Amino acid sequence: MSSHYDTIVIGAGPAGLTAGSCLAEFGLKVLILDEQNRIGGQIYRNVENASEENLQKMGEEYRRGLKLSERFRKSGAEYLGNASVWNVEPEGRVCYSKDGVSERITANYIILATGAMERPIPIPGWTLPGVMGAGAVNGLSKDADLCPSGTVVLAGSGPLLLLEAALLIEKKVKIAAILETTPKIPSPAVLTHVLKALLGTAFLWKGVKMILDIRKSGVPHYKGVTNLKALGETAVTGVEADCGSKKLNFSAEMLLLHFGVIPDSHIYRLLGCHMKWDQNQRYWYPSTDEWGRTNFEKIFGAGDGTGVSGALAAEFKGELAALEVTRCFGIIPEYERDRLAGPVLDALKKDSYPRPLVDAFFAPDPKRFTFDDATVLCRCENVTVGDVRNIVSQGVTDLNEVKAMKRCGMGPCQGRMCGPALGEIVAAELDTSIARAGLLTIRPPLKQIPLQEIAAMDIVSDGVDPANLFKNQSKKADH
Amino acid sequence: MFKHDPTTTSTVEIILDGQTIAVPGEMNVAAALLAIGKIISRISPTSEKPCSPHCLMGVCFECLMEIDGVRRQACMTPIRDGMVINRNLKDIQRGQS
After folding, report:
1. What is the pLDDT of residues A186-201, one digit of tens each?
2. Is B45 exposed, middle or buried (0-12, 13-18, 19+ CB in 10 A)?
């Protein structure tokens, strides 16, 4: 382990692996820091150890992870798993914790490839044991060969919900119902994207096959579902919802929720990167140039963390960021970077054809979010939607003020689970835009670490004293 | 709640809430406990109600457990032979009352 690298990549999914491999192939000294202990990120979780059966079930898309891992293993990039990054500074310093020891290392450039997370949407009863993300169950199957054994209800919206439903059907899991919150009749906005999407037919075919498989299985499948509710006292026992005028009620031991994915933006916000609001997909993403550079010269972003566009696009974005970093080092001239980037940009463009259709089809509609006053919004601190509305009605206008007064977003997850919905609720209450309502301020440590770890750190004096590890960097940035 | 094919992984012994117990290895702590039907991860200190892992990718912090003396995210910690894990569920009665 060295304390300085040419480039540190954070995250080992498609973007991180590709960026790391590409840089190492140019002879740069690269370290990939990964919070998991095995490469692959979420999409290619555990792909290197996957059984042939799992590879087959998860399909060609999953198998592609093997290609990335092969390239990465040959490239000479270093990998450090189980390393939780808890601070990143724009000057190129990274603090991480591994096995109870925290280290601070430096790099000339940092590529953030933190990926995406499932969009947390609070519904009544979502804190009950047995309510899980659909992606969580997908990960358990890749990681640990675990498969739900009781009756399951899948609810929410987005292609991954249907994908997981199709996988569980294939595994003969008992599914009581699939409850899609996506409206039955696509909005006119969807239709304008159909032509372009036809250019990416392979992708569409996959979707059509998936939907046919679900239909063939005979699993009750409802669309335009509202008022989702998990029932139970100490664990999930059932699920309730409305479909038009119809009241739905199912017995179930598990409720798998999925409302699409959003960029995991905590590191960017900690750094003070300029954030933008995507009005259609309703998420915040960091502002980057075509190569992934943020407003900080040394900080790049790649993959779904910079805006959700899928695993293939993440690879391409990882490659582009790596090419630009290589140019910055003077290893390749600009024209060489552009020559190498040409085919990547073409592939990225081709890959993007079906996306506007999928995005429009599953676009989250804020009018369909029914946040009841009694619903727990902040799971960590047990703050309800009503608590937040109440404080807003008393004149609070900023998310951070809500946090300070109600502790919403102040628990161990640091607003990861409540932040997105908190923004929606405060903006709706104030009848203002999400951009106006703002974002929760993120401070180090990004993940909790025992204080003794920090006390034991060997911090070389290079103009930044240890106390400044916890300064609020975002206030320094001009935005 | 979950079924696990025991032929796919080895087994390790851990001490869970004071009792020695065998769980599948080669996976994270949260998955290993789910595999043996232990779905409750902790008692929420604020609502005093039981929690189970929710995201299994390091986001939600619902699987926080005392692992070898330190409160960690079980889904981000690989299971190891001899691990001492405390979920501190004794408060569960109070939570339900």
Report:
1. 666 666 676 666 666 6
2. middle
CATH topology agreement for domains A120-259 and A371-431: no
Which CATH superfamily, name and number, covers A120-259? FAD/NAD(P)-binding domain (3.50.50.60)
A162-A167-A170 Cα angle (round to 5) = 125
Handedness of CA A66, A262, A80, A332 (dihedral sign): positive
Per the CB < 8 A criterion, the answer to whether A318 and A113 are in contact is yes
How far is A336 from chain B, CA to nearest CA, in Å?
Answer: 38
Please name the amino acid found at residue A207: G
Q: What is the DSSP letter of A13?
A: S
- C-alpha distance from B39 to closest chain A C-alpha (Å): 7
**B2, B26, B47: residue with CB nearest A382:** B47
Q: Chain B within 8 Å of A145 (Cβ-Cβ)?
A: yes
**Chain B touched by A456 (CB under 8 Å):** no
**Residues 375-404 of chain A whose Cβ lies under 8 A from any Cβ of chain B:** 376, 379-382
CATH number of B6-96: 3.10.20.30
Q: Could B56 and A450 be called an inter-chain contact, meaning their C-beta atoms sit closer than 8 Å?
A: no
- Which residues lie across from A78 on neighbouring strands? A31
Q: Judge: A135–B55 Cβ closer than 8 Å, yes or no.
A: yes
- A371-431 in CATH: which number? 1.10.10.1100
Q: Please, what CATH class does the domain formed by A4-117+262-332 belong to? A: alpha beta
The domain spans of chain A are 4-117+262-332, 120-259, 371-431
Q: Give the pLDDT confidence of A327-338 residue by residue, as tens digits.
A: 999 999 999 999
What phi and psi, each to the nearest 5 degrees, are found at residue A98? -140, 130
A26 within 8 A of A332, measured Cβ to Cβ? yes
**Model confidence over A97-144: pLDDT tens digits?**
999 999 999 999 999 999 999 999 999 999 999 999 999 999 999 999
pLDDT at A448 over 70: yes
Examine the pLDDT at A296 and tell me if it is beyond 50. Answer: yes
Could you state, in order of their start, the residue ranges of all structural domains in chain B?
6-96
Distance between B94 CA and the closest CA of chain A, angstroms: 13
Selected residues 182-211 of chain A with any CB under 8 Å from a CB in chain B: none
Cβ pairs A/B, distance under 8 A: 127
